[in-house]
Design brief:
540 residues, mainly alpha, 78% helix, 0% strand, globular
Length: 540
């Protein structure tokens, strides 16, 4: 009798521990959702804050871009800091900073203050984004559970970017533009309290010497490259300041990599990229962001400019891929025992490539139904890819370095997204400039504007007589569709090549990497001391 009771007690303890892990995951997902929502929530608020503050064109661009730019530049650095000072500590500090920066941004009195507030949000976001992932790596040491958890986390990240405009719309209809930031405050309060109560502390017990010069090189390199890519989308790569900045960024990153090979205690083990599982997952993860974010930007423009949909309606139309990703991501774990992680990623890339080719069937007269199947396929594909690639990247590094591994995974995604928008946007614009054939009645400045972009052509057409306006719109929309078709076909071809690369890199690898199996069953109970090399001995 007493033996039965003694056996039941640990079972109940394990059950409570498992419950606490999933509640802790919910807290981490709230944090990830807020970070990703803030990437796009400002899209619908730009007109109202422009009316209120009257910022210059340059200031509007900085208001929109500075958050993502700063966050991308600091992800690896914050991953390093989390490994050293404690991931729980960095997360709760980040939640306080993000909540405070949101309040400051909401009440910004002028454009300069708003830009500074958005930059501070980027710093706070960089502390939270990779830290949530590295904490998941440490509290879910069972492979199957960790894959499910990361699938849910990636679904929140993907869903958040789609939800940004949808969350912002009702707030702007009832309150002022600052409300899109103020809503972050109570959500970050939940993250702060939940983090303190539920999360265990973990850090690298022997972090070694921190090479500050390496940190500076990584920040400068990533910031410069991402800035150059973002600017090239608007102004083209021919501007001296853009290719000069890009060159400086590449040089800084090359120096960073070279320095890591010379240090006795490098902050990034570049030899990780010799690991075929790690490098294959990193490439697949980055190019998935390349293809996914880039094409969704084109589809948004297609719906708004070609079909004259409002930004809110276009955002709602793009919910299916995000919703499908959120639903399917946790289910991907069922495929892995049958296909293996790498082949599940390859399947996702094949599906994503197919979605790109299906997007090419859209035309000026096609309705939303022409997009419905590829967008749903898009969502399923992304969930297959991210649930595996992110898990493979963070698990390829030792547990005590999960922060830096998470920083690498998230930075690769940010760089891929920026490159996708730049490359696909350049293809679209190049074909548009070549194919547009304006009627003779459009001359001078109006002709130059209409030849620049479809949005400008629509503005020009609005000031012309009805007959001429119809011809302008027909030519501009036809040129836009030619550019979009080529862009999505190129995108699909690239993704198909990455699919083949993933299969090649998976040759001879087991379905699940050996170190995953070695860790199976050593689950960490949030709030209890972790008996692993990553634990700092601090209770939640």
């Amino acid at each position: 009798m007493s033996t039965a009771k003694a056996g039941a007690a640990p079972a109940r303890g394990q059950s409570r521990g498992a419950d606490r892990r999933w509640i802790a995951l919910a807290v981490l997902c709230v944090a990830a959702l807020v970070i990703s929502v803030d990437l796009t929530v400002l899209q619908l608020a730009i007109p109202s804050l422009t009316e209120d503050m009257n910022p210059s064109a340059s200031q509007i661009l900085w208001i929109a871009d500075i958050y993502g730019l700063v966050m991308a530049g600091l992800l690896i650095t914050m991953g390093i800091i989390g490994d050293r000072i404690g991931r729980k500590k960095l997360l709760v500090l980040g939640a306080v900073l993000f909540g405070g920066a949101s309040a400051l941004t909401a009440w910004a009195p002028n454009p300069e203050s708003l830009i500074a507030g958005r930059a501070l949000l980027g710093v706070a976001g960089a502390t939270i984004y990779p830290t949530t992932l590295s904490i998941i790596r440490n509290i879910f040491t069972n492979t199957k559970e960790r894959t499910v958890a990361i699938g849910i986390w990636t679904g929140m990240i993907s869903g958040g970017t789609a939800l940004g405009p949808i969350v912002g719309g009702p707030l702007l209809n009832n309150f002022w533009w600052g409300s899109v930031f103020l809503i972050n405050v109570p959500l970050m309060a939940v993250v702060f309290l939940g983090g303190l109560i539920l999360l265990p502390e973990s850090r690298n017990p022997k972090p070694g010497r921190l090479d500050l010069f390496s940190v500076v090189l990584s920040v400068i390199g990533i910031l410069a490259v991402v800035y150059a890519i973002q600017e090239s989308v608007r102004d083209g790569f021919g501007e001296p300041r853009i290719y000069g900045t890009a060159a400086a960024g590449v040089v800084a990153l090359l120096l960073f990599v070279w320095r890591q090979t010379r240090l006795a205690e490098p902050i990034l083990d570049v030899h990780l990229f010799r690991n075929r599982a790690f490098s294959g997952a990193f490439v697949a993860n980055s190019f998935t962001m390349f293809g996914s974010v880039g094409v969704l930007l084109l589809i948004s423009q297609y719906l708004q400019f070609v079909h004259d949909w409002s930004p809110m309606r276009a955002a709602l139309a793009l919910l299916p891929p995000a919703g499908m990703g959120m639903i399917c991501a946790p289910l991907v774990v069922q495929l892995i025992p049958r296909l293996g992680q790498a082949r599940t990623v390859a399947l996702g890339l094949a599906l994503l490539s197919s979605a790109m080719f299906l997007y090419s069937r859209a035309d000026v007269n096609a309705g939303y139904t022409a997009l419905l199947i590829p967008t749903l396929l898009h969502g399923i594909a992304v969930s297959c890819i991210f649930a595996c690639t992110v898990e493979m990247i963070v698990s390829s590094a030792p547990p005590e370095k999960s922060g830096i591994a998470s920083g690498i995974a998230t930075t690769g995604g940010e760089l891929g997204a920026a490159m996708g928008m730049a490359v696909l946007g350049t293809v679209l614009n190049t074909i548009y400039h070549r194919r547009i054939d304006l009627p003779d009645g459009v001359t001078g400045q109006a002709r130059r504007l209409a030849s620049d972009s479809l949005g400008s052509a629509i503005d020009v057409a609005g000031h012309e007589p009805a007959g001429l306006s119809k011809e302008i719109l027909a030519s501009a929309k036809s040129a836009f569709m030619d550019g979009m078709h080529l862009a999505v076909v190129i995108n699909g071809t690239i993704l198909l090549a990455i699919c083949l690369f993933t299969l090649y890199s998976a040759r001879g690898l087991p379905k699940i990497l050996p170190h995953h199996e070695e860790e199976a069953g050593r689950d960490t109970v949030p709030g209890q001391t972790q008996h692993t090399t990553t634990d700092a001995g601090v209770r939640g």
